Amino acid sequence: MDYNICMQLGDKVSMAIYLKDEFTAQYITDSSIKITLEDTDFKPIVKSDCYVFTRLNNKMYNVIIKSDIYLMEKFSVNMEELPSNKSIFITLKPSPLYPFPKKSNIIRLSLVDSRGKAIEGTSIEAAIVSDRSAVARIVSTEGENDILNLVNISGCIERGDTFVIKKKDEDFTETNTTCTIEGKIKNGKFKLTKPLVNDQVRGALLMPLIYTRTDSRGECVIFFRSFREKSCEVSLKIENEDTKRCIVMEEGKPVFLKLITA
What we know:
This protein is mainly β. It has two domains: 13-92, Immunoglobulin-like (Sandwich); 96-262, Immunoglobulin-like (Sandwich), CATH 2.60.40. 0% of the residues lie in helices and 46% in strands. It contains no helices and 20 strands. The protein is globular, with a radius of gyration of 20 Å. The chain starts with 12 loop residues before the first strand and ends with a strand.
């Protein structure tokens, strides 16, 4: 996809926002998604693949994205710091109301405190830790440790996907390196958003890592696009908890959890 803005509009493009569905890895526009600039009356022009704002001033704006099936996103944009193509890429995380296909690999989690009150806005990390369910194996790195050469790739690896780098048979710990995919260069070769600090990754495995957070009801949904095995072990890390929780997921069977935290 060519993200350079080429539009026959009466006004110059100030900002174009591209939204990607984290589950499908597809760029989307949908009438149910509302994008606003806080404390302004500006409204975007909805194109086939992005949302375009015009006539914006060279200042800071707070962008708010709301949808029933995605978690709300709020972030600041300094218009003077936008790239030349004026494009911003945002990944939308599924909310508990997201219409997952049947037999999706999902965890539905409800988080409450000791009094049974829902806890909103708590960050959750979930990672597959079973070696046999690795998405790929690293053969080598290139450039400034920001390019990975991969083999044994299972499923699809998309822009924005995040992984834990873990050596085979190694325990999953807080010290494991993580990486995020910026894009695919060619088959088996991927660019990272940031260079790896540790270059001793040859032979290491890429394990899927999902970040999400609880909504106003204290609920969240965690997904994994695919498993290599019929079942696998998943590590859950709840914000402000010192220990991780481990569960076993079976392919195509949803897991329902109600967790009590301090």
